[in-house]
Every structure is written in C-alpha cells, then in structure tokens.
Amino acid sequence: MAAVKLYGPLASTATSRALACLLEKQVEYQLIPVDLKKGEQKKPQFLAMQPFGQVPVLQDGALTLFESRAIVRYIAEKYAAQGTIGLLGKSLAERAVIEQWMEVESQTYNPPSSFLVFQLAFAPLWGIPQNQAEIVKNEKKFSKVLDVYEKRLSESKYLGGDEFSIADLSHLPNTEYIVKATGKSELITSRKYVNAWWEDISSRDSWKKIREMSKAGNKK
Amino acid sequence: MAAIKVHGYHASTLTVMVLCCLNEKEVEYELVLVDLPTGAHKKPEYLALNPFGVVPTIQDGDLTLYESRAIIRYLAKKFQGQGTNFLGSTLSEEALVYQWCEVEGQSFNPPALSIVSQIVFVPMRGGSTDEAAVEMNVEKLEKVLDIYEERLSKSKYLAGDFFSLADLQHLPCTHYLVNACGKGDLISSRKHVNAWWEDISSRPTWKINFT
C-alpha cells in the first residue's frame, strides 16, 4: 500500500498535529516540505490541492484532504485497528466528549494560544512589531481557559476521559510552543493538573519523534 | 426513551442549529430555556453543565455535551440510520464533511462572527460598532467566499452532492449576516454561494424557527 503523503513544514502547528496522528496510528507516510517563506503554499500547484493556501494537505490514494483536525479524525477512523487504540473513544458517548474537547481546542484554546505563539515566538524572529496590549489581553483570556482545563483535568486523566484521545493530541503543537518558545511556560507549569497532563502527553513516542525530527531539521 | 434535553435560548442561532439538526434527524427533544438576557448562562446552575457558560448544552441520558459543532456531530453519528444523512456514504465522503466543517470553524466563522458581533451584539451590550474592524473582517470574508464560490460552482453542497453537517454549520452566522447586519450582498453577489444559501436556508427545519 502506498504511503500517504502529508504536505507541510514540520514547524507548522497544523502540520505537526496531523503528523502526530499518523505516528500514533503507525501509518506509513511521506512528509513533503512546503516552503512557506518562499510562498510555495500560494502557488497554483499547491492551491489546486488546497484553495485556501494553507498547510497541511493529506493525499491518501484518490482522496485529497485538508484542515489538520479533519485529517486527524480521518486517520483515526480509517486506521482504527492499528497503532494506538481508542483515539476516538470506545463508545458513541465517549466519542462525543472527545469531540467536545476537540471543539474546545479549536474554538477556545487555539485562538489565544496561537496569538501568543505568533507574537512572542515568531514576530521577533521575523522582525514584525509586537502588539503588547493584545498580548496582555490574550494572556488573560488563555489563563481563564486554562483554569477550566485545570478543573477538568483534576477530575479526568485526559480531556475525553481515562484514555489518551485525539482531543489531547490536538493540543500538542500549540502547547509545545507555549512552553518552549514564548517565555510564558508558567501558564502551563503553574497549574498542577494541566502540567501533569502536559508532561504525560508530550512524552508519548509520537511527540518525542516529532521533537527529534524538529531538532534534526534545525541542524541543516 | 426520554427525550433529549437542549439547554438553550430560542433566539440563539447556535441553539436553533441544534434544534434544526434534531428535526432533520427526526429525534424528539425538549427545549429547556436558558434566559440569556438575565445572565442565566453565567449562573452556577448552568456552569455546572457547561463551565464555559455558553449555549447550547444537551443532555442525552447520562451524557452532558456542549459545543454546538460537537453536538451535531454526535447526533449525526448516533442517529445515522434515520432522517437526513449528514455524513455521506463512505469514509472519504465523511472526511470531506469534516474538512468543510473545519473550514467553517477556522476560516469562515472568525471573520463572520466578528462582523455579527460588532454590528449586532456590541450595540446590544451598550457599546458602539468598530467600523474599521467590520471593514477588515468583510475583506477577509470576501476572500473566503470567493473560494466557496469556486467550490460551489463544482459541487452542489460543500462536501459533495449531499446536504451535510458542513452546510448546516453555516446557517447560524450567515443568517445573522444576511438578516441582521445588512451584509446580504456578500452572499447575493456570488451566483453559486447565493444558490447554495437560498437552498439551505429554505429547508423547513431551519425556516420554521424564524416565522
């Protein structure tokens, strides 16, 4: 069976979200880099696959699929019988709670954390001026969200329940940058249960592999 | 079998979207009013159901579930054998449904909701519309809708030739854009987007909530 193709740079949070799922499910893949600096994602060849000009894109046989969270769901469903089992829960009710926390990540965790990552980790690298007022606003927002997570994770080992699921997986990329690259790691580490959850999910083989690949990529 | 309870507000379009979904799936439900104008959604009783203090939340037996997109996904799966088939017929079709659901959540909703928020909700709370923010988000939304126009020129609905969760997800915000923000031209100026909007917004299960 031909390997699935994942187009995107590893440094992109959306790309590493999709890749984490491929690794958890032990799916053979080919990671094809896309040079965002050169605007490769806005060229006709790429737009033909992804009309919004964003990474990543998955090609699996005749299917071309974009949006990392859709890719995660598809991979988890198609390869349900291999790799980490139970990423979608063991019942409809479990899956529902997992989907709930997928949406919380998408609509409530992602916006403020992405903003902070861009402003604090990338803007300085790219010579883009920071917006201090908005940084403060988003940090406050993100803190409030994390307080809800702290309560949830004090009652439940993982977001969806007792087992690691795509809901936890979806949080890996942004949280990695928050902890490693923004100078705001205490947002995570100061919260007992959020911190324990972060330590747990980020030490999974799949995420360790992505960290290794990132290091190797940065040495080029 | 006990009816599903929907905790929500009749004028909240996300609540209406969940009710629409239940009707499409021919599932019995009970609407439990959460009186938003009096702040019921921020009171301890409601926060015990939904710690983020937003509507809607559903209760189905022992399951309490919030996030409207997660709710409709659950209903679509649980009642897959009856009513409207929201998920397509193959795994690949289902994947495309999720793809366009994510496009709604990540690309359409942020600018669309910002526009609706500035024009409808901010004044309701005593503030004034930030016209620059509206203009900026209209520009963003125009670019997204151009891509929709291209897609819908090749496909009757977003995920394929069937009405899916992805189309359903667009009803709440677009309803406000067209009916409460004076931004109907964003839709009507695009031939295929307009045809699609006319089609999905005239489904009886949606329309009935606004008569």
TrEMBL record, chain A:
A GO CC term assigned to this protein in UniProt: cytoplasm
EC number(s) given by UniProt: 2.5.1.18
This protein's name: glutathione transferase
Entries under Pfam families matching the protein: GST_C, GST_N
Top-rank taxon: Eukaryota
Domain GST C-terminal: 91-220
PANTHER family, alphabetized: GLUTATHIONE S-TRANSFERASE RHO, GLUTATHIONE TRANSFERASE
Swiss-Prot/TrEMBL GO biological process terms: glutathione metabolic process; response to toxic substance
Family from the record: Belongs to the GST superfamily. Phi family.
GO-annotated molecular function: glutathione binding; glutathione transferase activity
Domain GST N-terminal: 2-83
UniProtKB/TrEMBL annotation, chain B:
Superkingdom as given in the UniProt entry: Eukaryota
The reaction(s) this protein catalyses: RX + glutathione = an S-substituted glutathione + a halide anion + H(+)
Record-annotated GST C-terminal domain positions: 90-211
Cellular-component GO terms for this entry: cytoplasm
Coiled-coil stretches: none
GO BP term (any one): glutathione metabolic process
Cross-referenced SUPFAM superfamilies: GST C-terminal domain-like, Thioredoxin-like
Gene3D superfamilies: 1.20.1050.10, Glutaredoxin
One Pfam family this sequence matches: GST_N_2
InterPro entries: Glutathione-S-Trfase_C-like, Glutathione-S-Trfase_C_sf, Glutathione_S-Trfase, Glutathione_S-Trfase_N, GST_C, GST_Phi_C, Thioredoxin-like_sf
EC number: 2.5.1.18
GO MF annotation terms: glutathione binding; glutathione transferase activity
Keywords: Transferase
Sequence ranges assigned to domain GST N-terminal in this UniProt record: 2-83
Entry's family note: Belongs to the GST superfamily. Phi family.
Protein's UniProt name: glutathione transferase
